[in-house]
Design goal:
mainly beta; Immunoglobulin-like; 2 domains; eight-stranded mixed beta sheet; five-stranded mixed beta sheet; 3 helices; binds copper (II) ion; metal-binding; oxidoreductase; Cu-oxidase-like_N
Length: 456
């Protein structure tokens, strides 16, 4: 009985906070800045409050705040948004302040933070501040620490950002639906001393996954594992901006995983260390070198390295299906099947049918007609041709002479003469004939699968 009464009282306090807000009038609420594009915004130099080295949100932005009586006040609006995944494909998602993911929140260790959350969704929501050490009633778990924020209402969260590190926020209300619709955002608490953990460039993004049928616009939110879009900050390659760094600059890349599976994140041309997690910083003596680090569901990683190798370096999830876009999953393997002449006949029966490589899966240079609002499975024009990538893939561009604070794409790397793999033009021995697998059928039958094309 006591427990129940306390629980209701606790809930009442939160409700009182919300009603006080509306009674005092909208004038007391901070502005609700909104982003209209998926471009990477310039780092937000702290306009007031204590100094820090701002992060760069890949294809995202940082939420401005106002200082009120020494408290940093933010205003998040949970609302339906249209997010461009890459040029040529948009999706109806749910997010915050105009985009999915929501804007990054940056504060300094010891800051008192007040966050107003207005719910413009058709159902209740809440915000959980993943990794923060805060009073239990501010933890944002619907039903457990607060009632859900009803549609049209504004709730207030207030706590002190007690420790520096890498965090995220997301709903703890109808999670399967709301996170599959793109509701999430990054949170960085900077150290009090800006020289502590200082790096030259600090990139952040969240990993998310979506199941959007080719030709449709809205994710299927009850999908548990078979997603067809693997995203960094709700963007897929070639829609993800490159990360750039000056030669010998110290770089940090922080990422969190809000998908339903783990992602081994791999960087070419460099060795890095995991310098921090959502649990805090790893002491330097306990770090070890890696070129791939796995980030499990609900985890965050901050990796650090010196960008001492000039070039255009792939940075991607090492699960090869996660560097592809939609449509790749219902296709039979036809390697070794001679289907010359068959494709045209099938095409007259199944419009849009595409024969998948008899010499491998490469379809980077095929240009079939796609359903509307769908991206090629493997794409991205590079200086040497099609990169045959999608999903969780981007490029780290390390350049000599890049100015501090310059985040513009420097274009493709100009390789020094004699440093690019090239065709051998000397003598080639006669090729032996290919071995035939025992019991291989002479004419393997073709399985035809049409791309599913439902509209929602
Ligand atoms: Cu992955």
């Amino acid at each position: 009985m006591t427990n129940r009464r306390n629980f209701l009282t606790g809930a009442g306090v939160t409700m009182l906070g919300a009603s006080l807000v509306s009674r005092a009038g909208a004038a007391t609420l901070p502005d609700t800045p909104s982003a209209s594009s998926a471009a990477t915004a310039a780092p937000l130099a702290p306009p007031n409050g204590r100094p820090y080295n701002p992060v760069v949100t890949l294809n995202g932005w940082t939420l401005p705040w106002r200082m009120k009586d020494g408290v940093k006040e933010f205003h998040l609006v949970a609302e339906p948004v249209v997010r461009e995944f890459a040029p040529g494909m948009q999706a109806n998602l749910w997010g915050y302040n105009g985009q999915s993911p929501g804007p990054t929140i940056e504060v300094v260790e010891g800051d008192r933070v007040r966050i107003f959350v207005t719910n413009k969704l058709p159902e209740h929501t809440s915000v959980h501040w993943h990794g923060q050490l805060l009073p239990c009633g501010m933890d944002g778990v619907t039903g457990l620490t607060q009632p859900g924020i009803p549609p049209g209402k504004t709730f207030v969260y207030e706590f002190v950002a007690r420790h520096a590190g890498t965090f995220m926020y997301h709903p703890h209300a109808d999670e399967m639906q709301q996170m599959a619709m793109g509701m999430m955002g990054f949170w960085v608490t900077h150290p009090k001393n800006p020289r502590q953990h200082a790096v030259d460039r600090d990139y952040v993004f969240l990993l998310s996954s979506y199941d959007i049928e080719p030709g449709s616009y809205t994710p299927r939110t009850n999908t548990m594992l078979d997603f067809n879009l693997w995203a960094m900050n709700s963007r897929v390659f070639p829609g993800i901006d490159p990360m750039v760094a000056g030669l010998n600059e110290k770089v940090r890349i922080r990422f969190g995983n809000l998908t339903m599976t783990n992602h081994p994140i791999h960087l070419h041309g460099h060795r890095f260390e995991v310098a921090g997690t959502d649990g805090g910083w790893v002491p330097p003596s306990r770090r070890w070198p890696e070129v791939t680090t796995d980030v499990a569901v609900g985890q965050m990683r901050a990796i650090e390295f010196v960008a001492d190798n000039p070039g255009d370096w792939a940075f991607h999830c090492h699960k090869s299906h996660h560097t592809m876009n939609a449509m790749g999953h219902d296709v039979p393997n036809l390697i070794g099947v001679d289907h010359r002449g068959v494709a045209r006949k099938i095409n007259s029966l199944v419009p849009g049918y595409m024969v998948m490589g008899d010499k491998g899966g490469s379809m980077g240079d095929m240009r079939m007609r796609l359903p509307e609002n769908t991206l090629p499975m493997m794409d991205g024009k590079g200086p040497f041709g099609n990169m045959e990538m999608g999903g969780m893939f981007t490029v780290l561009k390390v350049r000599e002479g890049l100015k501090r604070g310059d985040y513009r794409d420097p274009g493709w790397y100009r390789h020094p003469a004699g440093t690019v793999a090239h065709e051998w033009t000397g003598d080639v021995p006669a090729a032996p004939s290919a071995p035939q697998a025992a019991g291989a059928p002479k004419d393997a039958s073709l399985h035809v699968r049409k791309p599913r094309n439902h509209k929602h």
